[in-house]
Amino acid sequence: MKSRTGELPLKLVQTTPKWLLISTPIALLALLAGGGTLWWNSVSAPASGDPNAQTIQIQVKPGASAQAIGQELEAKGVIKSQLAWKLWTNWQARQGKGSPQKGTYEIAPNQPLTAVAAQILEGKVIQSGFTIREGWNIKQMGEYFEKQGLFKAADFVAVAYKVPAETITPEGVVTQMLKQFEQVALPEYQKAAATNKLTLLEWVSLSSIVEKEAVVAEERARIAGVFTTRLAKNMRLESDPTVEYGLGIKQTADRPLTFAEVKRPNPYNTYMNAGIPPGPIASPGIGSLKAVLNPDSTDLLFFVAKYDGTHIFSKTLSEHVAATQAIRRQRQAGQK
């Protein structure tokens, strides 16, 4: 019975057994503990019971909060409860397990919440597959990645010589390329350490020129031999692709390089500068990398491209000039 003021009569409060006042919180805690376990087991269980459930892509942006990530995971059916997600990730942070890592994830909804959290806290992002063609320069690579919808070409070019990072980002792609280089090409360089006098950068840079010059694979070692011989004689490499790269142009049969372009200074112009350029002009393939480490031993000093992609090689400048003129006459005769 209540008084007019809505309060319990003092007599009733005084006659409440003391053991009940003490035991109620204990009983309540016990009840909550039991119910909490049941609740946790339910909300942390896989969102899907299908063992063949398709993965769902999740993009974690830099600085994203655990709550925001949980909301997206719940909305996309990856987890059952964003509250459970928040509780678990907070607990993991207190245990020193880290915080959500930015990147793109492929997450299966048929795994428990704890497994989903581990994937994101440990940064187990997806690896984007891509193919870099041998001979591409950095600009061409950037354009390719932009067409693939990964990121802007300018962003890739800006970090092309830097290293850290994660997943489908310019930095991540460069890292992946460097790892591939380390696994496939670097062992070749190390095997040739006893005879090779080129630095790592010189090796890759010279190989990139061979890559651009050699249309036919069988000519790579011979072209590398010509360049090696010219370097030994302190002759300039005089390679057209280095001029093209430095000027950002591409010559064709109908539009060859002009004398003015060949004489225009830039750091990569091997007509104007002695030695090997300061960096690669393209992505060299393993064939060109091996050719530079194992060039033909030759006294050939010149070569000129024919219109089928092969070359005429010469020992002297007069032979080279004659070969060049013969090729031009063939082209002119073909146009008539």
TrEMBL record:
HAMAP family: MltG. One of its GO terms (cellular component) is plasma membrane. The record marks E213 as: Important for catalytic activity. Keywords: Cell membrane, Cell wall biogenesis/degradation, Lyase, Membrane, Transmembrane, Transmembrane helix. It comes from Chamaesiphon polymorphus CCALA 037. This is Endolytic murein transglycosylase. It comes from the Bacteria. It is found in: Cell membrane. Functions as a peptidoglycan terminase that cleaves nascent peptidoglycan strands endolytically to terminate their elongation. Its main location: membrane. It is a single-pass membrane protein. The chain crosses the membrane at residues 20-40. GO terms for molecular function: lytic endotransglycosylase activity. One of its GO terms (biological process) is cell wall organization. InterPro entries: MLTG-like. Belongs to the transglycosylase MltG family. It catalyses: a peptidoglycan chain = a peptidoglycan chain with N-acetyl-1,6-anhydromuramyl-[peptide] at the reducing end + a peptidoglycan chain with N-acetylglucosamine at the non-reducing end. Its EC number is 4.2.2.29. The gene is mltG.
